[in-house]
Every structure is written in structure tokens, then in C-alpha cells.
């Protein structure tokens, strides 16, 4: 969902057929310089030296705890094609911290409901709560302690935020296209309130009382009548789902 | 989610015609002029309206999934404004029957020019 564990600082192997290794000592220097500034009221970050196992990065935030060997993190950065410079490593480390697990409290305070694939094969859609951190949208997985009340509260608040999000509308003839340039997956947030989208389309001159939506998570959301929607999506080889707007509320939560 | 019922008619085959922005604009203007200016059989009129729809849908398709057309443009060296406009055989026949269709556009649609 967020383009790999190191975000845009990762060049990917396609661009770097023989990646230069990220040195553990350089990563340690970057961690010592950067991590104290990233810690917050709830987020505690430390590098813990273990003689036998080597240093560990420990992120603790409310009920979440992440422990990763610095050597493993350096290897992952190498594999992801992170540039092994001071700036490259620092950017990758900051992106990695941004992508840490979302706490129940953070999901409750800032989560937004979006549609995303529920499976690796990209065959089924479901609702998901995500939290925006920097350029990343990080999915929330409820903690084992989160009971039905917490789940309901977090999801309800995330639906309200989704409904209030100002997604951008472009009209292309009989098709309405919704997008959110800064974080493309948020384009689906407006689907929590399809009646609101229908009203905005109507105000723009497009009457789609019985609209179908075409969803490819991470891409603009297209809305059109059933026949036009079938035409739009019928010839694409891309993974997508077409569904009548009334079925959006029936999709499961991830 | 995209399930097709057994009784549904088979989807028509749509063939891509790669047109520049100027050619798409010219095609839309030609069709509107034909619909306004000549007696058109009602069935042909629906097909021409479907071509107008497709011209919008082609742009929408590229906004949602730009990668596949971009790959073709990269391979062929075509300009960034070239998009696939997908027409059924009946829709293409309807356009080709328009008396005001410019010869150059006819040639492009018939695959005689790119």
C-alpha cells in the first residue's frame, strides 16, 4: 500500500541491477542522528546494543512494539536499492519509521476508511482503515486487545473522515473521475458516502442516480452508468472491480 | 463483482484505433455534424452516439490506467496524446458511412495511415 518499506528512497532493483550495500555502521550513525528527533510523546525509539546478537532498533508505541536487527534493516535497505549515502540512508530510515504499525489510538484519532484489495491476487475489495504519515498510508491492523466497541468506534470515525475528505472531481463526458493526488489510495475514501458523490456529480451536470463504480485501489475512481462502466473496464487488463454503488456498504472490513 | 449472467449477450469485440488528440477532436466534430446535418438511421445514430461516448471513455480509461497505453507509445514512438479509441465493427462502419468524414481520418480508422 505504501510502495515498499522505505518509500521513495528505495530505487528498486530494476534501476540498480547490482545495488551497493548499505553499511551497518553507516545505518547506526544515521539512526543515532535521526531517531531521537522522530520520537514523540507516545513513540519511543532506541537502538539497543546486544553483544551476542548485534544492535537492535526498538520502536515502542502504546500497545505496539517493533524490534529489528540493525543488520537485517541494512540488508533490507540494500535489497530495496536504497542509495548508501548519508542522505539516502536517513530518508529510508525516516520512511521506515513512518511505516511502523498503526496503534489503536492513532487509528481512532486519524484513521481514514479506504477501499483496498483484500488478497494478494487482487480479486476482492474490502474496507480498511489507514493512517497517513508523510507520503505513506499505513494500514491499521486491530490489536488483539481491541474489542468490538473499539473496532466500531475506529471504523465509524474513519468513515466520517472519508466522507469529509475533499477528493478531486474531473468530468469526462459520461464518466466522473475521483482522485487524490497527494495520496492516490485516498481517492476511494469518498466511496464511504456514495450519495454525496452522486450529488456532486449531479451539481457538475452528470446525473448518475444508478451509478456503477470502477475501483482499482491506488488509481482514480471512475463512476458511470452500468453500460459505460462496462465499456470502460471491459477491455482493460488491469485488476479492477466494477460494482453498483449500493453494494459498497456491503463490502467487508479488513 | 464483475460476474456475467448466463443469459447476457456476449460482449462485443472492441478494436483499438490509436488516435491523436487532434484526430479525436476531429472525429467528435464530424460525428456531431453528421448527427445534426444529415438524416441518420436511428440505429446508426445510436452507434454514432456510442462512438462519442467512447471518445470520452478512452480518455477516462487512460486517466485510470495510463500504463498500458504508455507502454505502446514507448514501443512505437508515438506522441503522448495518442490514445486507443476502442470501436466495435458496427460503430466503425457507422463512422465510415458518415458522408462528412475527412479522407485522412478515414484512412487512419482503416489502418491505412498512422
Give an overview of the whole structure.
The complex is a heterodimer of chains A (254) and B (114). Chain A has 254 residues and is an alpha+beta fold. Chain A has helices at 24-38, 70-79, 86-98, 104-110, 148-164, 194-203, 226-234, and strands at residues 43-48, 56-61, 64-69, 112-117, 125-133, 136-139, 168-172, 175-179, 212-215, 221-224, 241-244. Chain A has three domains: 7-98, no CATH class; 104-161, no CATH class; 164-250, no CATH class. Helices cover 32% and strands 23% of the residues of chain A. In chain A, the strands form three sheets. A five-stranded antiparallel sheet of chain A has the order 7-8-10-9-11. Chain A has a three-stranded antiparallel sheet with strand order 1-2-3. The longest helix of chain A is centred in the middle third of the chain and has 17 residues, at 148-164. The two termini of chain A are 14 Å apart. The relative contact order of chain A is 0.12. Chain B is mostly helical. Chain B has one domain. In chain B, helix 1 packs antiparallel against helix 2 (42-64). The longest helix of chain B has 23 residues, at 42-64. Chain B starts with 14 loop residues before the first strand and ends in a 5-residue tail after the last helix. Mean pLDDT of chain B is 89; it is low at 1-7.
Q: What is the strand content of chain A?
A: 15-25%
Measure the end-to-end span of chain A. Answer: 14 Å
Query: Low-confidence parts of chain A lasting 5 or more residues at pLDDT below 50?
Result: none
Q: Indicate the overall shape of chain B.
A: globular
Largest sheet of chain A: 5 strands, antiparallel
Taken as a percent bin, the fraction of beta residues of chain B is 5-15%
* Major β-sheet strand ordering of chain A: 7-8-10-9-11
Count of domain modules of chain B: 1
Counting helices, strands and paired strands, the structural category of chain A is alpha+beta
- State the separation between the terminal residues of chain B, measured CA to CA: 38 Å
If interface size is counted as residues with C-beta under 8 Å from the partner's C-beta, which chains form the largest one? Answer: A-B, 29 and 20 residues
Low-confidence stretches of chain B: 1-7
Oligomer: heterodimer
Q: By helix and strand content of chain B, what is the structural category?
A: mainly alpha
SSE succession of chain B: EHHHEHH
Number of helices of chain A: 7
Percent of residues of chain B in helical segments? Answer: 55-70%
Question: Count of DSSP E strands of chain A?
Answer: 11
For the sheet with most strands of chain B, the description reads: 2 strands, antiparallel
